[in-house]
Amino acid sequence: MALHLKDKEAYQRLNYLYQAAHCVLAQNPENVELARFYCFSQKTIAKRLVLRQDPSVKRTLCKRCCSLLIPGVTATTRQKRNKTRFTVMRCLSCGQRKTLLNNPDYCLWADR
Amino acid sequence: MLQTVMAAPGKPTKKEIKKQTPAKTSFTSPFASKWSPLPQEDMHFILKTLKDKLISMGLEKKEVKVFRPWRKKKSKKPDVAPQPVPQVSDSSKNGWTDVAARRQLAIGINEVTKALERNELRLLLVCKSVKPKHMTNHLIALSTTRGVPACQVPRLSQSVSEPLGLKSVLALGFRWCSSSDGGVFTDTVDAIKLRVPTLDMAWLQGAKPEEPVAMEEEEGGERRGQKRKLESESEEVSESPSCTLQPLQVKRIVANPAKKKKGKPKKKL
Question: GO CC terms for this protein (chain A) (predicted)?
Answer without folding.
Answer: nucleolar ribonuclease P complex
